[in-house]
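Troubleshooting entry. The earlier prediction with zinc ion gave an output that would not parse, so I re-checked the input for stray whitespace and re-submitted. Clean input:
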Amino acid sequence: MCDTCGCNVTHGNENLIRPGGKLHKTESGKEAVSVLHSLLHENDHTAQHNREHFDQHNVLAVNLMSSPGAGKTALLEATIQQLGLNSNSKIKIAVIEGDLETENDAERIRKHGVKAIQIATGSACHLDAHMIHQALHNLDLAEFDIVFIENVGNLVCPASFDLGQHQNVVLLSVPEGDDKPAKYPVMFRVADLVMISKSDLLPILDDFKPENAKRYLRDIASTAPVMEISSKDKSGMSQWINWINQQIESRKTYLEQHPVVADHSHHHHDHEEART
Amino acid sequence: MHELAICQSLMDQVENIALERNALSVTSIVIGIGPLSGVEAQLLKNAYPLASAGTIAEHAELVIEYLPIRVKCTQCDSESDALPNKLICKQCGDWRTTLISGDEMMLMSVELEKQKDVTSEAVH
Ligand SMILES: Nc1nc2c(ncn2[C@@H]2O[C@H](COP(=O)(O)OP(=O)(O)OP(=O)(O)O)[C@@H](O)[C@H]2O)c(=O)[nH]1
Ligand SMILES: [Mg+2]
Ligand SMILES: [Zn+2]
Ligand SMILES: [Zn+2]
């Protein structure tokens, strides 16, 4: 087994997925090969590689996910403004934008004087690690402290693709309803932080109960903190900025304790498949 | 619909294995899917003919094993079955569990058609 690829054989599921010898009875002329690799083996490797790129430059990578229109770009714009207001904040941001057809979101970011790289995903409903790797070749990571990746608006597909981020932030906007964690458990389970966005609408759309959203998150065993935030009236903004600062700090501390090997080579990975 | 992308990634892996082992063809592919993997088995099946067309695995049977959701309680240590959006401990009802199975999307094994091994045939 290779230990870096995120293949999901664990101590707990090992006995469930290793088939009980039935693959051994192969006829002559046939060979059964036991593999036990994630279907997204390649992607997971590239993601790990991306993470090494980020780590080498002490850059925190945050993957923003949500349904379409939940307010990802608006949050990024508000964040850039907020960090700009704080004159003793020296955090340098870059944004990688995944969008189906347009450059709109990247343009919105660039208007704030922040570097934005647009990945045109075409018909793809998610970003993958290869797209991010491509984007990283157009980004001098040495210049930045944090890279936000705005994923394609979609609560299903992006959850399965590791990009090499350190943190997943999932936005749940008030108009969507508080039951989304129950309906999209795969997405909400990968969240390291859940943001109830457009919180300025809570008084109007009062069917949305933040307690309910939190209860649904507990039901899927999520330990992610939950924040309410509005890019419009800026409430919750300081909590979010604190979270960002904390993450940058803890990343730095982690990397001091686990330094990255300086020599980064695009070495060839070779895997021994387990033979039956 | 990310299942096509996942299916293509699967085919790449299968082709590599077949190539490495000088297989004539691939006869079957077994994958394991858990309900929390984010992959719809049916969509994967639908994507399969498209992704496998023209490859060494064109005629391989795609076998899907459905893996169960199992959680382990961090409070009472017991293991139990669970539903995708109800990952709580059956024993004590606590929500602080860890998933031990159910989010897999895994290539488990492939069966290859090889040149018949003359030496082992001779034993019969
Ligand atoms: N009331 C309110 N509206 C918001 C807020 N944030 C975003 N919006 C509005 O919601 C709409 C979508 O916002 P975007 O920031 O484009 O959402 P997005 O998630 O980036 O959308 P996609 O990239 O297309 O998935 C816009 O009309 C925004 O003005 C908010 O905090 N409060
Ligand atoms: Mg956007
Ligand atoms: Zn590279
Ligand atoms: Zn328990």
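This one parsed fine. The mean pLDDT of chain A is 86.
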